[in-house]
C-alpha cells in the first residue's frame, strides 16, 4: 500500500528520460516530477539495435547526485537481478520495461519481493491487472517508444478505459467469467467493478512528443505522462520540457496549450508505424 501511495504522488506530473546529469537538471528545472535515467533514449535504442540492458549503475548514480526529484531506472522484463542492483543503489522507482530487450519471454519479475515501487507497461486491462497482481505500484501504456508517434499510446489508453467501463457494467455474478477471460484474479476484477478505476495510477507513455500529445493523453484519462525521446531529440529541450509540463498541468486549457506550443522549434522527426521494424509493444506475444 505504501508503494501505491508513493506512485500517487507523481499524479499530474511529467517523467522525463535523461541520459546525463546536465539533462536531468534541465528536466528538474522544467518542472519534471521525476526523471528516468538511462544510457540511451528509446529512439537511439532503436537506431543502435542489439541487446539493450540496464544502464551502468555509475551513470545512474551521477544522475541521482544531480537532482532532488525522484530518479527511476529501467530493468529488462523478468531480469530480477538487474532490479536487485537498482534497488541496491537506492533507485526511487524501477521500470520493468519492454524498451529494453526482454530477459524472460514468460515470467515478469515478482515485484512483491522488493521494497522499491515498480512501474510496468500495459496495452490492455488484462496486462495491467497481471502486472498489478505481481506487485506493480504504477502502470503506463506501452505506446510505441522512440517513434514520436502517439498512436499506440492512444489506443492502449482507450482500450484500458473501455475495458474498465465494461467491467463496471457487469452484474456481480458475471465477474468470475470476466476474471477468467482477462486471466487475472477475481479479487482484482471485483475491485475494478467496485471502484471503476485501476487500483494504481495509470500514466501515458510511448511516442509523446508535443505539448498537445501530452494534453491529449491527459484528456483521455491518463494520470500523468512519460516523455522519452520527445524532449532531448528536439530542437530546444528546455523550452519543450517546460511546455509539456504546462500542457499536462493545464490539459483542458487550449489557449494555454496554443501559447506554450508556439515557437518551440523543431520537434523530434519521428517514425510512422509502417516504417518501424521493431514493435516493442508486441514483444513477448
Ligand atoms: N509484455 C511484454 C513485453 C512481454 O514480453 C510479455 C510476455 O512475456 C507480456 C507483455 C505478456 O505478459 P502477460 O501475458 O503476463 O501480461
How would you characterize the overall build of this protein?
The chain has about 280 residues and is an alpha/beta fold. The protein is about 45% helix and about 10% strand. Bound molecules: pyridoxal-5'-phosphate.
Brief rundown of the structure:
With 285 residues, this protein is an alpha/beta fold. The chain has helices at residues 2-8, 21-30, 42-48, 57-66, 80-88, 125-133, 151-169, 175-182, 186-195, 211-219, 229-232, 237-249, 254-261; strands at residues 14-18, 34-37, 71-76, 93-97, 118-122, 138-141, 201-203, 225-227.
Report the oligomer: single chain
**N- to C-terminal distance:** 31 Å
β-strand percent reads: 5-15%
Structural class: alpha/beta
Q: Please state the average pLDDT score.
A: 94
Chemical compounds bound to the protein: pyridoxal-5'-phosphate
Shape verdict = globular
Strands of the widest sheet, in order across it, are 7-6-5-4-3-2-1-8
**Alpha carbon gyration radius:** 18 Å
Helix percentage: 40-55%
- Residue stretches low in confidence (pLDDT < 50, at least 5 long) are none
**What is the makeup of the main sheet?**
8 strands, parallel
What is the H/E order?
HEHEHHEHEEHEHHHEHEHHH
Count, helices: 13
Per DSSP E runs of 2 or more residues, the count of β-strands stands at 8
Fill in the keyword field for this structure:
single chain, 285 residues, alpha/beta, eight-stranded parallel β-sheet, 12% strand, globular, binds pyridoxal-5'-phosphate
List the helices and strands and how they pair.
Layout: H1 2-8, E1 14-18, H2 21-30, E2 34-37, H3 42-48, H4 57-66, E3 71-76, H5 80-88, E4 93-97, E5 118-122, H6 125-133, E6 138-141, H7 151-169, H8 175-182, H9 186-195, E7 201-203, H10 211-219, E8 225-227, H11 229-232, H12 237-249, H13 254-261
Parallel strand pairs: 1-2, 1-8, 2-3, 3-4, 4-5, 5-6, 6-7
Helix pairs in contact: 2-4, 2-12, 7-9, 8-9, 10-12, 12-13
The structure holds pyridoxal-5'-phosphate (PLP).
Amino acid at each position: 500500500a505504501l508503494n501505491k501511495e508513493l506512485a500517487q504522488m507523481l499524479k499530474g506530473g511529467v517523467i522525463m528520460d535523461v541520459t546525463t546529469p546536465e539533462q536531468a537538471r534541465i528536466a528538474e528545472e522544467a518542472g519534471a516530477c521525476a526523471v528516468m535515467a538511462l544510457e540511451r533514449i528509446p529512439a537511439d535504442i532503436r537506431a543502435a539495435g542489439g541487446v539493450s540492458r540496464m544502464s551502468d549503475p555509475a551513470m545512474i548514480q551521477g544522475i541521482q547526485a544531480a537532482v532532488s526529484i525522484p530518479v527511476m531506472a529501467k530493468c529488462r522484463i523478468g531480469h530480477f537481478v538487474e532490479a536487485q542492483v537498482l534497488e541496491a543503489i537506492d533507485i526511487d522507482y524501477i521500470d520493468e520495461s519492454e524498451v529494453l530487450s526482454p530477459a524472460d519471454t514468460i515470467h515478469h519479475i515478482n515485484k512483491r519481493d522488493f521494497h522499491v515501487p515498480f512501474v510496468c507497461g500495459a496495452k490492455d486491462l488484462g496486462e495491467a491487472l497481471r502486472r498489478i497482481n505481481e506487485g506493480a505500484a504504477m502502470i503506463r501504456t506501452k505506446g510505441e517508444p522512440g517513434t514520436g508517434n502517439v498512436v499506440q499510446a492512444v489506443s492502449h489508453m482507450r482500450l484500458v478505459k473501455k475495458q474498465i467501463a465494461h467491467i463496471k457494467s457487469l452484474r456481480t455474478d458475471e465477474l468470475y467469467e470476466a476474471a477468467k477471460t482477462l486471466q487475472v484474479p477475481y479479487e482484482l476484477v471485483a475491485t475494478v467493478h467496485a471502484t471503476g478505476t485501476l487500483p494504481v495510477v495509470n500514466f501515458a507513455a510511448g511516442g509523446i512528443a508535443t505539448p498537445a500529445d501530452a494534453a491529449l493523453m491527459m484528456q483521455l484519462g491518463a494520470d500523468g505522462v512519460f516523455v522519452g525521446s520527445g524532449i532531448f531529440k528536439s530542437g530546444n529541450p528546455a523550452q519543450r520540457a517546460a511546455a509539456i509540463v504546462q500542457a499536462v498541468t493545464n490539459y483542458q486549457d487550449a489557449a494555454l496549450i496554443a501559447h506554450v506550443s508556439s515557437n518551440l522549434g523543431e520537434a523530434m522527426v519521428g517514425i510512422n508505424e509502417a516504417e518501424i521494424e521493431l514493435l516493442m509493444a508486441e514483444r513477448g506475444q
